[in-house]
């Protein structure tokens, strides 16, 4: 695989797949620019070599072609400011106009194409569409790790039309950090798994059982474990058909000598709302009409104690419904402990995308851990051992 630093972009037009899928408010202002910031080093390297950039991305999930809400033109001012270059914009990602603008691009210039997903062909991985995109550049750079698990036209298929295919800096960092945790983790290695469902995380949990010393289980998925073990979970989240699987995971963990740490107590609510009535109860003692929406204070301390002593930490998924401040305490306590492990115990900490990344960034602690992944699903699939189409297309 060719890395960005090993390629000279001088005089080249680089077609760069970036992940500019950023959240916008009602005024089309960017509310979190993490993904844009992440791609700046890749773009800057291409420009400083004397190349030009044609940037392509998706934004949101447009259903019926061009939609104002999902137009990438809203990103042009912020991107221009960050790059110190006036970014040009093509209001169609293929076609004559995009072709002319790309052809006229001079070294040091940047062109942003309109949302790729305004064409259904993008997600279908359509070859003809990919070939039209490919005509715009001389070299393809893939820096969109967040969509690397999808075989879309711009993330994978387009690679067929290029001899020169280069791995961007975000993509490289994501792969290097995931590899570091999977292959060179220093012990004690603690994985913290949270979020809504066991079914989404089962493959990664199984893989991690061969690697970790401690597996902390929090979030909505704990209730399926608790129920399977005979506890009462009231109206908490349950995947009834995954109870057997939950017991199997516990058995495998025991066989492999992995220390599984589950909640001791839960913060429960009588409604799925920030203003619900709440109380703390022991695990497995949730009355009917109540649901567990966060770990309790004893659990937060128990989890934090293990995390703080770790040398490697992988965290994926919140400990509760952290979108409601009332139920964010457990997630914030875990975020604090991960920062302490990193800063005071010199641990390597990888925050696995999606909601855990939002949680740590919202708490203002994103730059106090070793690495915050930009890819949720993609990171999980990579760590499960799957070949990601967007990575495979680079070799
Ligand atoms: P995931 O995408 O699987 O990491 O799940 C993240 C989602 O899980 C977040 O939106 C949380 O609000 C939700 N979640 C975490 N804990 C709970 C819980 N105890 N009950 C319901 N939802 C939860």
From TrEMBL:
Entry's localization field: Cytoplasm
Pathway assigned in UniProt: Carbohydrate degradation; glycolysis; pyruvate from D-glyceraldehyde 3-phosphate: step 2/5
Keywords of this entry: ATP-binding, Cytoplasm, Glycolysis, Kinase, Nucleotide-binding, Transferase
Any one GO BP annotation for this protein: gluconeogenesis
Pfam families according to UniProt: PGK
GO function terms (MF aspect): ADP binding; ATP binding; phosphoglycerate kinase activity
GO terms for cellular component: cytosol
Catalytically driven reaction(s): (2R)-3-phosphoglycerate + ATP = (2R)-3-phospho-glyceroyl phosphate + ADP
Chief location category: cytoplasm
Binding site for (2R)-3-phosphoglycerate: 35, 117, 150
Positions annotated to bind substrate: 19-21, 35, 58-61, 117, 150
InterPro entries recorded: Phosphoglycerate_kinase, Phosphoglycerate_kinase_N, Phosphoglycerate_kinase_sf
4Fe-4S as UniProt keyword: no
EC number: 2.7.2.3
PANTHER family documented for this protein: PHOSPHOGLYCERATE KINASE, PHOSPHOGLYCERATE KINASE 1, CHLOROPLASTIC-RELATED
Subunit description: Monomer.
Family according to the record: Belongs to the phosphoglycerate kinase family.
Protein name: Phosphoglycerate kinase
Organism classification: Bacteria, Pseudomonadati, Bacteroidota, Cytophagia, Cytophagales
Gene: pgk
